[in-house]
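I am still getting used to backbone structure tokens and would like to learn alongside you. Label the sequence line and the structure token line clearly, so we can match residues to local backbone shapes. Would you write everything just below, so we can both look at the same thing?
***
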Amino acid sequence: MMTRKGGQDCFSRHPEHQRAPLIYVEFLATAPWNRPKLVADPTYKGAGRVLIGTAVSLSLEEEFGGRIGLHSLRGAEVFYRDAIGMTDFGTDSEGVHKGLRYFELSSRDAATFLSVQH
């Protein structure tokens, strides 16, 4: 996982806290042997959730309230929306992320995500 703070992608689009700073997840991947869609018995189940939790923790450490944002590849959209509980802001129509869906975890949803993980 690679994250970033600062820059144009590092401000919230969420109506609960528009323009508030957030941690932007630039890149997140798990090894193929950890993906339930690719193998019957993943070596490390939950690796993606752990990485998202790490991004949320970084956001809390930076005093951003747990807010994170990212653009998703098509195959991961269901994971971010349904498994993590991120808000889907739809497909970006221009720029570097053209054609990718933008997801964001609000401060409230970050607290819920962390409470479910423990």
